[in-house]
Amino acid sequence: MTFQKCLTICCVALAIACGRADAQQNRRGRAVLSIPKVENKDIICFALYTVHDSTLKLTAQLYPIAEADTKTVRLEIEKDGKWVEVARTTAVEQGWTAPFRVENWDDSRTCRYRVAHGTEATYEGIIRRNPVDQDEIVVAGFTGNSIHPAHGGDISRQDIIDNVKKVDADVLFFSGDQVYDHNRHYAAWLKFGRDFGEIIKERPTLCLPDDHDAGQPNLWGESGKISTLSGASDGGYSRPGVYVREVERAQTSHFPDPADPHKVGQGIGVWFTNLNWGNVDFAILEDRKFKTGPAGRVPKQGPRPDHIRNPDYDPASVDVEGAVLLGERQLRFLDNWAQDWRHADMKVALSQTIFCGGAHIHGSANGRLHADMDSNGWPQSGRNRALDALRKGFAFHCAGDQHLATIFQHGIDEHRDAIWSFCVPSIANLYLRWWEPLEPGRNRETGAPEYTGDHLDGFHNKVTNHAAANPEKKPAGNILNTRAAGFGIVRLNTATRQITMECWPRNVDITSSAAKQYRGWPRTISQFDNYNPRSWGKLGKITFDVEDPVVQLIHADTNEILYTVRANGQTFTPSAPKDNVFIVKAGKDAPDTIISTGMKAGSAPLAVTIN
Amino acid sequence: MRAECPARAPQESLFRYGINIERKERVIPSSAVNKPNFDSRLIIILRLGAFFCFAGWTWVHFYWEGPYGILVWQDATYVFAERIGIDWEEFVGSGADDGFVQKWVARIGWFYLICAVITVIVRKGSWIQMAALVGGSGLLTILSYAKYVASQRQPPMFIEHGGQILMPILLVTALALGVRHRVTVTTALLALVTTFAGHGCYALGLWPPPATFHAMTSVILDVGYDTANTMLHTAGILDFLVCIGIFLPPLRRMSALYAAAWGFVTAIARPVAGMSLSLNYWGADQFVHEAVLRAPHVFIPLFLFFLWREPQSAENVARPPGLTSDDSGTTRPITCTID
To answer: What is the DSSP letter of A128?
Structure first.
């Protein structure tokens, strides 16, 4: 009996302990998510579109259609004051998406459209004309759309709506984690539509599904493999293929057609492609889908297969043979894309995350991680190949995912020899991170914080930090801006070829002179900074008889393309590695004419006739 | 004579269900019914279940990391730390070094290791060791609670850990009170029911199942989502049938056997689905412990299966399941007729 008494006391003590632990839990953090019952006239929630290469693709997102109601959805445009049907489709029941495709679209005019269902429901928006005559293309960038109240996810997005309207953004870019619910993408996607539909319906919008959208905390897609390890670091998708397909249909079926449409495992499609808008060529990348999972592939270096805690580890040991980042198909696409400058003055790569380990402290309380394989800093070889492909087109990179806004210039062989990237802040920051290197950066700008400058990330990738919107260490109030929430604006000036990055906190009027950006922003760079290593020299100035020709430099001894770029104006002074000889090709829209077979640093100026 | 033969009751049940079994007689040797000997074997089953459970979690704590992040990285914990006089940087580390939390999360593994050792050496009357095992159950409760919170507070996540949480307590009660004591058997039943009910809730889709459920089914059996879904639903129904069947005397042994088999299959499914020759150590360090720490899912039903298989005295047959006459250890040969 004594024992039984002891046992009873222990059980009661345990129950009390659990109760107290439960009471300690922050119940503010639980989001309520449901699919509201709507009337038939409101059954269309929102619509997303892109126009590319004279093809309009629009996806209407509907609330559930009753069994007895028609599944047919119509797309109409306004012509001479009347609505004219241009396409119709059947809503896909799994996720209730209605994807439309209209070819031979005249993108030179703005057009009102409406999506219609049955006799009652309509949803109106505007298909913008292609802003090819604008000098400045404005991209509004977002990531991490947490709806959890604990950190302000339940606070209205109206400030974002208002600001996007004020700057009249030409393109909306949601880099990922539009949805954080791992089981109810449809319900969360509808909420996303209710929150952002007002701005999405009027401009091309790119939503890149990331790990949380696909229903898992991290994602190494491994070409559609099935993941069976909790945390998914064995590679592949945790959720069934049918779920992932629904997610991708909802978020990406309005993208321009994929560059290489072959499906991956579980029948999951691909959507990497490009969108040419306003003479800016956007590469839309999938940096998750093909990536190898680290579990079992790399030597264990920390408490999780994808985390490296040991600062003394050998970075080369994790750069294992066979580990993939973008994959061959996507790299082939990038190689072609970087050479194709038709209707393009500038190039921008959009992807889920950045090509380096862009944070040191993970979590709300000083959890230092030497390296995180969820970032594109790993595998290093794949990272370098991707950056090499991107810099060949002088592409600027915009991404998200990190929950920490940063500006990095990447390096492959030396610091600052590759592209710049802007990681935008989270709409509402679920998980805090800090860029806080232990050593001050080298070659910092005057007055810049110690965390800026040249560094090696946890994988020994060369990176140069120019800004980091670190959250407060112990956030007062712990919602939105104290957690460094916000959004990014990228201004791409096709006339001056300048790129301006802005990083705004939430709930400010960004047109007000009193509004302040996060420290380190705004930052303006030249398009040509995206591939301008300090060790290079200048070739002779080339003068053309046409405006803005496309110029390509090819290594004379290896025939390997160094880069292709559209010059700004009638003159161009190429930069290139010293002591190398180059074949130079040029043309009005493609480098189809050899203008020199032996240029090198210090060569004499050259006058070229292309026409 | 029939009353002397506890093994006969199930056979009669089979007859009632129309199953014809050839009549024959055999003499059960005295060694097979030596109660202390048999009890000690049942104890070994429980020791194995508890040992593997603690050993698996020890591996998690030392080699990987315990799942406590969700509990410790939050405001309430900081407030608690401040109340007990630990400042914030000391509590969470400076960023350049580990703080109180990181150090103690790592140290918890030692408690699991100690518990694993105790499961092997603990004897009746070793009250300190038994108290430590009860403490081990407390650790498993906290761990399960952390997983429950991480799962967005899905009750089945906590419930399905019932088998693991109760495994050490079951061993303690078996040692202290006897394997057939009411408390022991009730604890075993509770452990089995919670495990299978929690699992069944997920498999039936009453709560969104962990993604690994479908994934493992698809990978191991090479079936598509729809088939995997159907199989999980079927398994979910069987999970609940087990929870009922375990209380029905004619079905309880069959239920326990099925539960042991299914517990084994679901535990071993992790390494089977995940391990590969192409991985470092074949992926063993990633997956094997996932099977090992689920040992209670196998050994608790196995314990019940063998407990109910034991030839019992006439007195025991007349008693409700789990009740015993005494632990005197008196042995005698029994001649038994099996239908």
So the answer is: P
